[in-house]
Known about the structure:
single chain, Rossmann fold, 6 helices, binds 4-nitrophenyl phosphate
Amino acid sequence: MIQVLFVCLGNICRSPMAEAVMRDLVKKKRLSNKIGVDSAATSSWHIGEPPHKGTQDKLREYGISTKGMQGRQLQNADFDNFDYIIGMDESNIRNIRTILGNPSSPKIFRFLDLTDHRKDVPDPYYTGNFQETYDLVLEGCHALLEKIILEQRL
Ligand code: 4NP
């Protein structure tokens, strides 16, 4: 099983959105038995909490459920347990690397570097714009799925 982990600061807005969108794409491609998807926070602020209402509402608009999703914090063991560890922004990448003990690994990268945007995913916790974030997350997930299919010969 290929394991994918999305990481952001709080694990209530951007990374759970990416997790749910990616799981939906994987399911539609009939790859759920090959690709697992999870998300985590670099902070401990929202452990055990469901996704932010803005993320829940936006996903529901697109027919994607967030049922049962709960915030958790990134932990050291995640480095061994995941094949792709994806930060939503540059500060997430720095924090991921610190928490994981500063590994130098191509499996850690910034999400939108897979797209032509090559920028941070704007944080709707601050911008209030969940649509902008959803559109970028969807584009990033398509690019990520393509990368995984190629690299893993699925
Ligand atoms: P996220 O957004 O990292 O996309 O989940 C945030 C969520 C919560 C906070 C900041 C950003 N906060 O300060 O609690």
